[in-house]
Batch of 2 targets.
Target 1
Amino acid sequence: MRPQNISLLCGLVTLLFFPVQLLIQAPDNVLSYRNIIESFENCIPKNNQVETKKEDTMVATTIQQQVDTADLEQKVKTMYRDVALEPEKEYHFEMGRPLAEKLGYNPDDLDHIPAASIESFAGVGYFFDLAGIKEGEKILDLGSGSGMDAFIAALKTGRPGYVTGIDMTDEQLEKANRLVEDFNLNNITFVKGKIEQLDFEDATFDVVISNGVINLCPDKAKVFNEIARVLKPETGRLALADIVSREQLPENIVCNSTLWASCIGGAAQEDNYKILIEKPGMQVINIKRNTKYEFISKSARGASDKYGVKSISLVAQRL
Ligand SMILES: C[S@@+](CC[C@H](N)C(=O)[O-])C[C@H]1O[C@@H](n2cnc3c(N)ncnc32)[C@H](O)[C@@H]1O
């Protein structure tokens, strides 16, 4: 064969084998691309109803990476199991009827709900004055615990109103549901679930309430997106009490899952908290500080003094 024919043949062989070579390499490329996408997706709340701003995603991502979320969930469940089963024990936070009255709960309301739900009350503020619950409304209580707020909401909404409480700690749920049965109540139920992923249709509820819970959630953006999704547009309200901070907490506090479970470590900076509420289509219309809520432990008091960790109540309107 003539030399020019040999080089022509080599060229042809190279051309023919080039796509085969690409195909052989493709799985690796596809795999590494998929890894990048997956690791990126792991950082972003998947259930967003609205486009998440890059900075918000970064706030959520950093927090998720800083605290060991599995460890945190276990600590939260253990702590609130004890609160349900042994409310008389000493905790690092105040509890029960004395706390409820101090925060502003109406003694007459407390007299009309199961006393056992009040003894395990571990909320951080009062918000029913902001919620304006009307008869017949459908209410969802996020992190309902032993049920005190849900029982009060049921008093206000009556029948055909309805209250659903959701909590992830079995012992809290069992106690709350036992009380529903004992008191033969027919407008309230407690279900197991995590508030980051609500098993309800869009626009189901008139009012979402929550007391001392969202600070415990590493992915707050996901929680507020879900709240906005299940609230009725235009009339729906979010009324809550929670712990926030004046300043962004430093890493040594945020990384400490024990301080999270004590309602300190997960306190979001107050302006960021408001941004996270408003991003999915709610508007904060009233916010107040619960000056009567006090931290008991030395470390909690220290954090409270230094970083302005505090309890607030607020109401936000679904747009
Ligand atoms: C501080 S207690 C408040 C309970 C109740 N709201 C009250 O005022 O007594 C927090 C409750 O939220 C629940 N909780 C915390 N994180 C949760 C989550 N991601 N999903 C569902 N429940 C959660 C805990 O199990 C616990 O019962």
Target 2
Amino acid sequence: MSLSPETIKQHRRERLQERLGRYRQRLDRHESQPLVEGVLRRVVGLTIEAVGCRAPVGSHCRVETADGGFIDAEVVGFSGDSIYLMPTGELAGLVPNARVIPTGKTSRVPVGDGLLGRVLDGTGRPLDGAGPLQTGEEVSMTGRLINPLARQPIDEPLDVGIRTINSLLTVGRGQRMGLFAGSGVGKSVLLGMMTRFTEADVIVVGLIGERGREVNEFVQETLGAEGMRRAVVVATPADNPPLMRLQGAWLSTRIAEHFRDQGRKVLLLMDSLTRFAQAQREVALSIGEPPATKGYPPSVFAKLPQLVERAGNGDQGQGSITAFYTVLVEGDDQNDPVADSARAILDGHVVLSRQIAESGLFPAIDVEASVSRAMTGITDEEQQDLVKRFRQLYSLYRQNQDLISVGAYRRGSDPRLDEAVAYWPRIQQFLRQGMNERVSFEGSLSELQGLLRQPAEGATRQSGIRRDAEPAPAASGQQAKRAYTGAGGQ
Ligand SMILES: Nc1ncnc2c1ncn2[C@@H]1O[C@H](COP(=O)(O)OP(=O)(O)OP(=O)(O)O)[C@@H](O)[C@H]1O
Ligand SMILES: [Mg+2]
């Protein structure tokens, strides 16, 4: 039986449609936009300009060098037919019209318990010479956004091992704090102390844009073999290109997120947030973004909250990321735009003062200028009363310090100030803490209680500042669970 020409045509059409469908599927599986190789046109500073190249922003390219090798670069912007790239490594050996080959890949992050004990660079490659990473899993650099309504609240205090912070500036699990100070006032040392003393399942440390020497110091001395067992260090020191420094900050945050998503309690420490902002400024300015606030382009102030918001508590069933970011306050100017922006987006700040450090008191925490915004929700009224009283005495003395030190203040003229003066040596003693001394949360509170419950010698009677904090009214829920004994009072 012969088929009619119509039926044959129909069969052909069906076969053709079937083949076309298969081709479409294959096309869909690959990049919808084919990647096209381009050539190098211009290199100014650290910015590489290529033409004829088709690669999306955030993807990676390889640029051929004069000796036939390649350098890795990431697409950071474009204008007309040109794309702008920035190197993630050393920028040397480039020649005009060199090949620029898109790899089609974006940054991936190796994650897993195999990271514990390791030191990585900003791209996630090991720096410690301890062989390849045994992680197995890779995730994208851009984490999952948490619905703000689903985030667990900060409702549990965290013992950070520092007397002043535990008692006067209590930090909650999942809180994001800033450590603000000028250079050389003790940010890194305090961060190191908290690294060793804080209770956490995993510690992720991002050393961003600081001295290369400090990386080894941090790994060997601050963390040591014991601390490294539960830590991951991401190091992108000052000599790394700006893109690498930025990646270091994102990478450490992404690793912390991974452990949090597994339900662990993570401590994320970043030294420093200012260097992250400066790296973003370098990248943004070099691709033509105009400077806005004191030389910083607007994207810096958009990236800071993006980075910081990724820390904090997870949603139900997840763990937490408690984060500490150091912020360099240049020229001790607390109104520096980066410091200002960081102060606004973080959940509290510990300010270190040069004047206090110069007097030899470490950690040089300026209690007056520091605040923990989650404190009222995680402490009971008894502690809040003690803190209020401590702050009153502290401020009163500090406001009159100049008068007192030149001998212009005479005892008896203000009973409240007399009391502050009498308490001052013990206040200083309370604030002082050696680098290797750990003070537990309960210990910190009972020392604070002991300090304020004991009358200071030399105080006149009618001082007006209550000596004994009122007995704690019945605290509710969470807060009532924590009881502590005072050296002097109960
Ligand atoms: N708790 C402490 N006890 C004794 N000395 C301290 C303490 N904290 C800091 N110091 C002293 O202060 C110096 C500077 O501290 P650190 O390196 O932490 O400052 P920094 O603020 O990180 O400086 P930079 O901004 O330059 O990185 C230390 O070398 C040390 O001598
Ligand atoms: Mg430092």
